[in-house]
Amino acid sequence: MRNCTYFISDMHIGAGYIADSRAHERQLAAWLREIAPTARRLYMLGDVMDYWYEYRTVAPRGHLRFLGALAELADSGTEIVWLKGNHDIWLFDYLSSEIGLTVADGIVDTVIDGRRFVMEHGDGVGEPRRSYRMMRKLFRNKFAQWLYGAIHPRWTVGFALAWSRHSRLHGRAPSSDRTLPSNDPLVKFSHDYLQHNGHVDYFVFGHRHQLVEMELAPETRLIVLGEAFDKMTYGCWDGMKFELKTMKSAMDLSV
Predict the structure, then answer these.
(1) What is each CA distance from 136 to 15, 77, 81, 114, in whole angstroms?
(2) Which of 25, 107, 131, 140 is at a distance of 20 to 30 A from 125, taking alpha carbons?
(3) Can you name the residues that pair with 79 across neighbouring β-strands?
(4) pTM above 0.70, yes or no
(5) 127 vs 76: CA distance, rounded Å
(6) What letter would DSSP give residue 36?
(7) Backbone dihedral angles phi then psi of residue 82, each to the nearest 5 degrees
(8) Main-chain dihedrals φ then ψ at residue 13, nearest 5 degrees
């Protein structure tokens, strides 16, 4: 019975810091096939790919097992929404037309089974750094995207993956705390959103690589999904409750 909505973020498929990228992709493809019998919807909250740039006539190399399983899921009738993250910001119309999924950029505010969900990757509403906000705006500029697309991929792909690896190795480790302080940007954004837009049942974010599950206000919860390249976490809403779960190991899943 297809009564579940699944949420996942930060898979970072193809990242140089993943020890066995092929096994990682196989595990994600197997998970997509595992949830297929119960998946009415799938929301992927950004950074699905560690790097993605769509050229007008050329598809990026690799990721075939994952994309094939995603296409199978869409063909079976599951509604798939892919929210852009900061690593897959240059997702345009290729996968939406080939697979039939919906690409969203920014906040998604929707009702699922009578409950209101507000979703965003997390970098658009939870990053206080001015330098980051300026870079994010530049990456969304159409002229800047055109200039970047004119550079041969032999230069851009290697540079982007190296940058990602450096950021991962030298960035702050995610907190093990499953709550956020009151002055956290995600908490402040969510409170402000409630004040101006009315009641929300669930705020759901990615980006942080941290698992968070906390009560924000009466009957309002804030969720951060963790990540799906090491801990392999995801969220599931069955129409009655929201649960954070961990995937089975690759040894337990058949592709």
Answers:
(1) 20, 34, 21, 33
(2) 25
(3) 41
(4) yes
(5) 37
(6) T
(7) -110, 110
(8) -60, 130
| Closest alpha carbon to 224 in 126, 114, 141 | 126
- Enumerate the β-bridge partners of residue 217: 220
Q: Are residues 65 and 26 in contact, defined by beta-carbon separation less than 8 angstroms?
A: yes
C-alpha angle with apex 78: 74 to 83, nearest 5 degrees? 80
Could you give the residue ranges of the DSSP H alpha helices within the chain?
Answer: 21-35, 64-75, 94-99, 123-126, 130-139, 142-149, 153-170, 185-197
CA distance 246 to 120: 21
Per-position pLDDT tens, the chain of length 255: 889 999 999 999 988 889 999 999 999 999 999 999 999 999 999 999 987 777 777 777 778 999 999 999 999 999 999 999 988 887 888 899 999 999 999 999 999 999 999 999 998 886 666 665 666 666 666 766 666 666 666 666 555 555 555 565 545 667 777 899 999 999 999 999 999 999 999 999 999 999 999 999 999 999 999 999 999 999 999 999 999 999 986 444 433
Greatest CA separation found in the chain?
52
Alpha carbon 123 to chain centroid distance? 11
CA-nearest of 162, 164, 153 to 54 is 153
CB-CB contact of 4 with 37 (8 Å): no
DSSP 206: -
| Spatial CA neighbour of 90 closest among 52, 57, 63 | 52
Give the relative orientation of helices 130-139 and 142-149 as an angle to the nearest 10 degrees: 70
